[in-house]
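Good morning,

Both structures are done.
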Amino acid sequence: MTSKQLKQDVAILVVAVFSALVLGTILYSVAEGWSIIDSFYFVTMTATTVGYGDLVPTTQLTKALTVIYALSIIPFVLYAFSFVAKAQMERIYKKVHHLERQQEKQEKELDAAERKLARQRAKIKEQEEELDAQQAGFRRQLKAIKNQESDLEAYEKELKAQKRQLDKEAKLNKIQAQELMEHDQELEAVEDVMEEALKN
């Protein structure tokens, strides 16, 4: 039932109940000689099954009319109340159903967001693991570079030591060469002296 149709049905029921109350008011006002207010009060109490008993029909005609009127108006009023209650329940049900659908939609969106967040966390974790692996590789490379630097320093020290040794050997060789030259010169001088002695 659409909202427009519901409003139309409620309006028809209201008009019908009000018309029945107005008709009963006129009938009791004429038949019992009551005022319009008293007649309307009586038919309203009869239609709603309240019946305080302060106004009662006094003639056989109005008593019969009251029986017929009560049997006619009471079920009609109860139907009107039940129809309004049913319409109200349908409206509440639609609202609840709408809220449930919204809640389901929000839950699905929340689940999707949680899955997306879980994927992002897993991706971040993978990136962190890759970063840790890269850092470990960098540390190994740095350690290897330091070891190479240490080896180079040791090699440089060894080369310096060898250079010093070579410099010492070169100095010794130079001294020995000078001594040999002097010795050769002495030998040449002796040979010259011996040649001159042989000539003489």
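Second structure follows.
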Amino acid sequence: MLRMTNAVCEEVNRRRMEVTGENPISHVHVKDFTQIPVIDVADLIAGNSVRLEVAERIGEACRESGFFYIVGHGVDSNLTHRLHDLSRQFFALEVESKMRIAMPLAGRAWRGYFRVGDELTSGIPDQKEGLYFGRELRSDDPLVQASTPCTVLICSPLSLQNCVK
């Protein structure tokens, strides 16, 4: 597990209280935790017989802490390091630049940038900013034609390059 400091936990709760005016966990049974669960998904990806156990660990992590860290995914470490570096560059940009690829501009694709508070969970503004992205597929792509889960036909493609002058 990855260690999470009490200061981080307290800051998350403090920010939620600022937005809602109430204790964020007063109505939810959540275990106190100081570690982020780390889940190896290699068996899940491989379709091994223990894949249901992996799915149960993911479900438990979602219920207990609300998030988790995945290992064993098979994504090349050079790619994950590059994504990390590009993410830092993107989120260091001025808000005006990031808003050039805001989610409302993407139509039904559900892609693009969102600011802190733009998304809601159970009617409460989330305390995160983010960027949803994915492959841009044409209507004749075999994945779209086969209605493959997690593929969306991009009607108004967005590109990170739109943020960079």
